[in-house]
């Protein structure tokens, strides 16, 4: 049995589908009853629980061979959640833990990178067999169908700075491969990055070429400061702080990576952005 945490999120659903396609029995764990919808997609078990509750974690890891831990993104207690998952897995005698981290977690001014790095430390000191996956900025962060429908690509950071990208489906394929091949990938850390390195203008050109529609680009500043209404929750404040730092970094430095490791793991070239756009639009 393979446990996947945050299984009903965007990353989790892709990973679950890849594991099911590879023939694994999957226990999908998430906090909302929506995770039960994954039963129709072939998961063996759907477990509704709280990642911050030791009792729920203890039940979730029972009888599990491998844990694929996906931390809930931009969560103020993500590091604590990761620590709890690793502790529960270790106590239960889980054979292998696969942690979803992030490319360049050492960029500690970024709050989400701080959390991923803290969990990496716990994984490294767990005395468990581990594989750490460090995916780059997802292509799926761009809603291609919406961009084509509206004729505009909007983003909240510099339109000139280039960013590396990776297709989430490639990342999910690697996660399933790592779980399936087990020992071959123990004690490894893999940066997962595609070959594309584009700014907003170049992304728009690709979308335009594939779709046949002219696409313009537009800078949309991320809102900062207080908003009218009730007091924001801790989670809302944290998410906003994290995104402000992330977009500032992207706008000043971009983010880079190398595709060699992903190419080796896939046994092929990574999915290009043009291929991703064609798939998103149902083109051939």
Task: Tag the structure with descriptive keywords.
284 residues; single chain; two-stranded parallel ribbon; 17% strand; alpha/beta; Rossmann fold; seven-stranded parallel β-sheet
Could you explain how this protein is built, in words?
The protein is of the alpha/beta class and 284 residues long. It has a domain at 2-138 and 166-194 and 257-271: 3-Layer(aba) Sandwich (Rossmann fold). The chain has 10 helices and 11 strands. The chain has helices at 10-21, 54-61, 78-92, 111-124, 144-150, 168-181, 200-211, 234-253, 260-266, 273-281; strands at 2-5, 26-30, 45-48, 66-70, 96-100, 129-135, 152-155, 163-164, 188-192, 197-198, 216-219. The strands form 3 sheets. A 7-stranded parallel β-sheet has the order 3-2-1-4-5-6-9, sandwiched between helices. Helix 1 (10-21) packs across helix 6 and helix 3 runs parallel beside helix 4 (111-124). It is globular and about 55 Å long. The model has no long low-confidence stretch (mean pLDDT 95).
CATH architecture of the domain at 2-138 and 166-194 and 257-271: 3-Layer(aba) Sandwich
Q: Can you tell me the overall shape?
A: globular
Number of helices: 10
State mean pLDDT (0 to 100 scale). Answer: 95
State the major sheet. Answer: 7 strands, parallel
- Structural class by helix and strand composition: alpha/beta
């Amino acid at each position: 049995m393979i446990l996947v945490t945050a299984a009903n999120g965007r990353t989790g659903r892709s990973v679950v589908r890849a594991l099911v396609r590879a023939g694994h029995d999957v226990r999908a764990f998430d906090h909302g009853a929506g995770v039960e919808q994954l039963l129709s997609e072939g998961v063996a078990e759907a477990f509704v629980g709280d990642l911050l509750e030791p009792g729920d974690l203890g039940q979730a890891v029972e009888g599990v061979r491998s844990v694929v831990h996906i931390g809930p993104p931009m969560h103020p207690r993500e590091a604590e959640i990761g620590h709890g998952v690793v502790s529960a897995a270790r106590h239960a005698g889980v054979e292998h833990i696969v942690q979803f981290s992030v490319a360049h977690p050492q960029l500690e001014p970024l709050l989400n990178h701080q959390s991923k790095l803290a969990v990496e430390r716990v994984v490294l000191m767990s005395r468990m067999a581990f594989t750490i996956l460090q995916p780059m900025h997802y292509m799926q962060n761009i809603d291609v169908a919406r961009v084509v429908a509206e004729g505009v690509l909007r983003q909240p950071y510099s339109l000139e700075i280039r960013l590396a990208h990776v297709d989430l489906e490639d990342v999910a394929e690697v996660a399933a491969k790592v779980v399936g091949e087990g020992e071959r990938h123990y004690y490894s850390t893999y940066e997962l990055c595609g070959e594309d390195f584009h700014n907003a203008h170049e992304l728009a050109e690709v979308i335009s070429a594939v779709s046949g529609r002219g696409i313009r680009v537009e800078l949309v500043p991320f809102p900062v400061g207080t908003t009218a209404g009730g007091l924001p929750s801790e989670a809302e404040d944290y998410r906003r702080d994290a995104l402000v730092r992330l977009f500032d970094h992207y706008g000043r430095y971009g983010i880079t990576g190398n595709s060699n490791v992903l190419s080796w793991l896939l046994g092929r070239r990574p999915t290009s952005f043009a291929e991703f756009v064609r798939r998103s639009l149902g083109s051939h």
